[in-house]
Amino acid sequence: MAPNEQARQHHDELFPGHVSTLAVTDPELIEYFDNFAFDEVLRYGTLDTRTRLMVQLAALIAVQGLSEYRIMLGAALTVGVTPVEAKEIVYQAVPYAGMGRVFDFLHATNDILTAHGVELPLEGQSTTTPETRMEDGLAVQKEIVGAGTVEAMYAAAPADTTHIQRYLSGNCFGDHYTRGGLDLRTRELLTFAMLIAMGGCEPQAKGHVAANGNVGNDRRVLLSVATQLLPFIGYPRTLNAIRLIDEVVPAATNDSGNDSGKE
């Protein structure tokens, strides 16, 4: 048993020279998985290879797939994801997955970058200071989420939870979204990927479906992300993600073109 020719070609592009031990111990499963993940699923959607690898890395952090993350980070570097972009994916995960989940992935990323000859630390990407983070963060939060939505969140927050709203503006958006290395559209895709992969974050994921639309990631892009994550996060969380997309951006509001293949 072996993956089909197209799956092997895609696999070899990402992992040149890699010989899977699972292909020896679990040939049937690897045939199913590689044919699905590296052929069938790749026929759908609009994501370029680099973006596909970046959202998959974000999702693997969210599901705590450390061993798979190590392998996929190597593939990402092979197809041109830069060290700065790789590190920014990990940094973007901190406010959403929490440092408890991200810590091991940060060390793994450093190990892999060092093994590739990258000197650490990388050039800093922060664009704010302790004095500007709140103002700048609130501005980018309103750009992404919508000014009316942000103002409503502040207005609706009880007095004893307004500090959380300030943390969202100053820390989540001010410390992270204002960083260089990735544009806002990519950061929002990463956030969407992490939220749907974690599960239990449906209200937040739904909010970020709308936020993605605000920065130019339409229904087709989000469906492409959900589809490319399917082999790594499973059907339940993928179907939950599609339900949220349908609720926020129903198919009838989009073009009726063929979504079955790449543009």
From TrEMBL:
<dbReference type="Pfam" id="PF02627">
    <property type="entry name" value="CMD"/>
</dbReference>
<dbReference type="InterPro" id="IPR029032">
    <property type="entry name" value="AhpD-like"/>
</dbReference>
<dbReference type="InterPro" id="IPR003779">
    <property type="entry name" value="CMD-like"/>
</dbReference>
<protein>
    <submittedName>
        <fullName>Carboxymuconolactone decarboxylase family protein</fullName>
    </submittedName>
</protein>
<dbReference type="InterPro" id="IPR052512">
    <property type="entry name" value="4CMD/NDH-1_regulator"/>
</dbReference>
<feature type="domain" description="Carboxymuconolactone decarboxylase-like">
    <location>
        <begin position="27"/>
        <end position="110"/>
    </location>
</feature>
<feature type="domain" description="Carboxymuconolactone decarboxylase-like">
    <location>
        <begin position="164"/>
        <end position="246"/>
    </location>
</feature>
